[in-house]
């Protein structure tokens, strides 16, 4: 998996660099690339795109046609060219990784980061919003929460933003206490 993301990175960076001059274009391209990636991952389309009997010239048209209907006019010409580049380099299978990396670059440019919140118990939307309101100044970013239930935490929460971890869980407190007693 890491190998695919390494190969996908230059494509995502090039696409981002081409779109980054215009915020409206950046948002539109992010949506179009996400749609293409979602469609490319469906089993039937994936099988069709991998079929050696289909000519390269038709692969991009199939993907664009399935993703955006019979008319390509909804898709930016640069995205169509990008799909043709992926087809010619036999890299259509990288679309999900390219889309994820493009979205990460866009979020970074917008000062947004994903906050993975692990909680021992389900959290209401209001609790998540209150927690995010407290965490945003600490991390200096606008946070998009993603909540995971992890009963092993016993209580409290663990928040991961990028490579930073804020762990206020009971499990972490017990671990710190055990370490102090053992020292």
From TrEMBL:
Q: Does the keyword NADP apply?
A: no
- Provide the protein's localization: Cell membrane; Membrane
Spell out the molecular function terms from Gene Ontology. Answer: proton-transporting ATP synthase activity, rotational mechanism
- Keywords from the UniProt entry: ATP synthesis, Cell membrane, CF(1), Hydrogen ion transport, Ion transport, Membrane, Transport
For membrane topology, the record states: Peripheral membrane protein
Q: One GO cellular component term, please give it.
A: proton-transporting ATP synthase complex
Q: Which InterPro entries match?
A: ATP_synth_OSCP/delta_N_sf, ATPase_OSCP/dsu
Chief site of localization? membrane
Q: Which domain of life does the protein's organism represent? A: Bacteria
Q: Would the keyword Membrane turn up in this protein's UniProt record?
A: yes
Q: What does this protein do?
A: F(1)F(0) ATP synthase produces ATP from ADP in the presence of a proton or sodium gradient. F-type ATPases consist of two structural domains, F(1) containing the extramembraneous catalytic core and F(0) containing the membrane proton channel, linked together by a central stalk and a peripheral stalk. During catalysis, ATP synthesis in the catalytic domain of F(1) is coupled via a rotary mechanism of the central stalk subunits to proton translocation. This protein is part of the stalk that links CF(0) to CF(1). It either transmits conformational changes from CF(0) to CF(1) or is implicated in proton conduction.
Give the protein family.
Belongs to the ATPase delta chain family.
- Could you tell me what this protein is called? ATP synthase subunit delta
Q: Give the species.
A: Jezberella montanilacus
Q: What is the lineage of its organism?
A: Bacteria, Pseudomonadati, Pseudomonadota, Betaproteobacteria, Burkholderiales
